[in-house]
Amino acid sequence: MESRNNPKTIRAWAMFDWANSAYNLVITSTIFPAYYTAITTTDAHGDKVMFMGHEFVNTALSNYVLAAAYFIVVLMLPILTSIADYKGNKKSYMQLFTWIGGLACCGLYFFKLNTLELGMFCFALAAIGYCGGAVFYNSYLPQIATLDKQDSVSAKGFTYGYVGSVLLQIICFVFVMKPDWFGITDKSFAPRLSFLLVGIWWLGFAQIPFFKLPKGVPNNSTQHQNIISGGFKELSHVWRKIKANSVLKKYLSAFFFYSMGVQTVMLVATGFAAKELKMPTESLIATILIIQLVAIAGAALMSKLSSIYGNIKVLMGVVSIWIGVCIAAYFTQTSTQFYLLAVVVGLVMGGIQSLSRSTYSKFLPQNIPDTASYFSFYDVTEKLAIVIGLFTFGFVESLTHSMRNSALVLTIFFIAGLLLLFLLLKTQKQELQKPVSVA
Prior knowledge:
Layout: H1 7-27, H2 31-39, E1 48-51, E2 54-57, H3 58-87, H4 90-107, H5 116-138, H6 141-144, H7 150-177, H8 189-205, H9 207-212, H10 227-244, H11 246-276, H12 281-309, H13 311-331, H14 335-363, H15 372-400, H16 403-433
Antiparallel strand pairs: 1-2
Helix pairs in contact: 1-5, 1-7, 1-8, 3-5, 3-10, 3-15, 4-5, 4-8, 5-15, 7-8, 7-12, 7-14, 11-14, 11-15, 11-16, 12-13, 12-14, 13-14, 13-16, 15-16
């Protein structure tokens, strides 16, 4: 394996974020939610849709489908990553999930109201492909960067992702907002073309990291063992290591709770503005673009602050701001208020994602052959948090008929995460104060 902190390797690694973040912006945050809400809201049935013989609130259905996709990831990834560590082939899995996600986005080109089941199936597959590829991508961080560089390298990845996704979003934005420039008369064509472009962008730019990134390093030299049993042995080994590390265990607990709020807010923001504030599609897309651009500065800012105050203290400050965001969302009434809130969300969104990843990487045991299994616990923690967060958001909306109440409920998760970060800070101080034994 080549030495860490190699600029070319780091740039190639960051290009994976450039490639797959287009999915995160166009499919989960802007054009797909707006298109989905528009085609599933009818004069005859309002916001109710029939899916697999059952009636659902349209936005609740998309939240449930996304939650189901993440739950599949939760069940699948620990086993696959332990096998990847055992065999040293994490790049192959990274490629597999990228093809699944990219092709699923291309499949969304065929999504209309009369193909709702197909659309939801591709929507779920795209999410699985995105999440699956991300865990192996994240696991490269300690392999390509030393401890002192991991905050800045993590921020670099998110910055590439934000810039790349915004570029494609602008291209798609032109098609959606000005279809007459291209002779487009079918209102559904421009959004569906955007989904196709996301798949092509994702698959195309992902070839850069696939060409440059090193392969994984096997964690077991006795490769004659059964791959499944070897994978499960690796999984149990990693689980024992995590349980024995009090700092790592407490950090994952805190990350679990505040991720319920962070990821849910990011996934439902567009739907919230469309339903609660009646904002038009062009305003929604502009808002998300603002969030993405501000997030670039947020990721860089948090990286700088962490070097001054330490990662946990900065995370505590950011989570406190998220609590304020959820409370403010409950009272938001106008587009201007939402735009101001979007700027704050962008600032803390980029920061908390970048810093969360690098903080976990710093807490891992050093000098281990490969880290895919360790990062699977990180990603599974996040995806399980998303499952609970999305389900809670959808359930509260169905119960109270208001997404504002759902946003307010998310503060509970953030408060729990903040308290656990405070306990983690105390544990860190106690660890530092322990006397060093002299042989």
